[in-house]
Structures are given as C-alpha cells and as structure tokens.
Design brief:
alpha+beta, Alpha-Beta Plaits, Alpha-lytic protease prodomain-like, five-stranded mixed sheet, 9 helices, 5 strands, elongated, Cation_efflux_CTD_sf, zinc transport
C-alpha cells in the first residue's frame, strides 16, 4: 500500500479482482496538532520539575543515609528518563513520512516506552540489593530529612501528574505518564510514613523495609509497562480493542459475505491501524460505504488508519486458504 494522508477522503483503486479502500475522518490532524503542542508543554514542565526534585532527593538521601530516599530518587530518575524518552519520541513521531520510512517515526513512542520499562527494572534491582544489605546493618537515618523530602515528592509528583490530566484519555503514552506519576506520589507517601515511624520509634530497619516495598511497587507497575510495550512492539492488538468485536462488525456490514486476513496493530501509542479482506457481493462497495466504515471503526474502536481490500465472491480461493490461520 502506498502511504496516504490522514485527511484524505475514502477512495478505492481497482487492482485486478480487488479494491483497496482507505477511510479517514476530517479534522483529526488539526486536533492532533493542538493536543501535541499541549502535551509538549506538559512534558517540558514535568521533566524540569522532576529533574530538580531528583537532585534534591538524591543529595538528601546520601547525606541522611536513607536508602528509602535513594530508592525513591532512583524511581523518579527512571520517570525523568521515561518522560524525556516519551517527549523525544512524541517529537520524532510528528516528522513527515519519507520515501524510506513511509510511516514516519511514529513507532518511536513504542520503543521509548519499552526502553523506559527496561531502565526501571535495572534501577529496581540495584536499589533492592542495597536495601537487603542494609537490613543486616541499618545505619542511623535522619527522620526529619526523610519526612521533609518525601513530602515534597508528594507535591512535585502529584503536581506533575496533573499536567497530564486532560491528555490522558487521548494518548496511551500520556496516560502512562499520568498513572506513573500518580503512583510516584503514592510511593512518596510511603516514605513519609517511614520518616514518621523513625522519628516516633527510632527503628532504623523501617527505612530499608520501606525501600523494598517501594521497589516492589515499581516492579509491579513496570512489569505491566514492559508487557504492554513488548506487545505493541510485536504488533499485537492494542489493549482496549476486542478483535472479535471488530471482526463481527465487519462481517455484519451490508453486502459482506466473508472477512479474512484481519490485522490490527499499533502504529504508535496514539494511532491504530487495520487491514482486512472483505468478500462482498457485486455492487455493494462504493465510496460512501468505505467512508462510513472508516468513521465507524474510529468511533467504535479508535482505529484511525483502516485499509480494506474488497474481493468478489468468485475471487480465487488461494488468498482465503492462505489466510485460514489468520484472525
């Protein structure tokens, strides 16, 4: 298929026995440009706030000998890297397609989320190793410093998350940043608890225990991110889209006799593509049909880039047989 603009009307080109239809809604690119600009500002502010906080938290953790603060700083540094990668990927994804890269660089958003997950897992391993060592010989910790810095973390992470509040419904990448930052705010609350307990009881082992709990929370959220990123990188059907429901929708279209060779995959963290072969009775396929199908795929399933190949009932059977093992 030749690359095509997202604002083109539905059209069909005859190639032997088949027709290829592409349907896209008007105004999608215009709205996307405004959303991208707002997201870029949110990333810039979020990265700036979190870089400053990571430096403060790391210095405070080292001088107060709090592994819980160091653990939280490592987590927040991972978030800074993740925000930076996502920001850079969002910028690259806006670059126009070229003769060599006909889809542009949209998939960089998927690669960024995968790299972020790997970096976080490495950080979790290092922090956990240090915390286990300190369980045997827990040093004295300045509970006041731990409490103050962690409380600041709740404010910084919570405030950064609010920057992505409105964009989280449109962009899976933005939604991930929002949820991750909200999780960080919750983790910082855990460190606040450690500071209070240390001040009240003097129990030094509370600090490494909290750091291990922080690491466990990071591991859970990061594992989910890693799994989803790998799925997207391997062209799995994106979360939230039921392929059986899509197939049923296509099968129930007027004039459709059969659906085969159905593929649904993510072009980026914000765009989903679909290709399918529709066996249709003669005269059932026309421009309005393709346009309406494209709009419904967008409305029902958030699929903005569908490509449909229409075949007559008497088409050669080789294609259908070759696609028997495909969804």
């Amino acid at each position: 298929m030749a690359p095509h603009d997202h604002q083109h009307d539905a059209h069909q080109d005859e190639h032997g026995h088949a027709q290829h239809g592409h349907a896209h809604g008007h105004g999608h690119g215009h709205a996307h440009a405004h959303a991208a600009a707002a997201t870029g500002r949110a990333f810039a502010i979020g990265v700036g706030l979190n870089v400053a906080f990571v430096v403060v938290e790391l210095v405070a953790g080292v001088f107060s000998e709090s592994v819980a603060l160091v653990a939280d700083a490592a987590h927040n540094f991972g978030d800074v890297l993740g925000l930076g990668l996502a920001w850079g990927a969002a910028y690259l994804a806006k670059r126009k397609p070229s003769e060599r890269r006909t889809y542009g660089l949209r998939r960089t958003t998927i690669l960024a989320s995968l790299a972020n997950a790997i970096l976080l897992l490495v950080g979790v391993g290092g922090v956990s190793w240090e915390a286990i060592g300190r369980l045997r010989d827990a040093p004295s910790v300045n509970g006041v410093v731990v409490l103050a810095v962690a409380a600041a973390g709740v404010v910084v992470n919570g405030g950064s998350a609010l920057l992505f509040l409105h964009g989280r419904e449109r962009d899976a990448n933005v939604r991930g940043a929002f949820l991750h930052l909200m999780a960080d705010a919750a983790v910082s609350l855990g460190v606040v608890v450690a500071g209070i307990v240390i001040l009240a009881t003097g129990l030094r082992w509370v600090d490494p225990v909290v750091s291990l709990l922080v690491s466990l929370a990071i591991l859970v959220s990061t594992w989910s991110l890693l799994r989803d990123s790998l799925d997207l990188a391997l062209d799995a059907v994106p979360q939230g889209i039921d392929p059986n429901a899509v197939e049923t929708f296509l099968e129930e279209l007027p004039g459709v006799v059969e659906v085969h060779d159905l593929h649904i995959w993510a072009m980026s963290t914000t765009e989903t593509a679909l290709t399918a072969h529709l066996v249709m009775v003669d005269g059932a396929c026309h421009d309005a049909f393709l346009r309406d199908v494209g709009r419904e795929l967008t409305r029902r399933f958030q699929i903005h880039h569908p490509t449909l190949q229409v075949e007559p009932p008497d088409a050669p059977e080789e294609c259908a047989h070759a696609c028997d093992d495909v969804l």
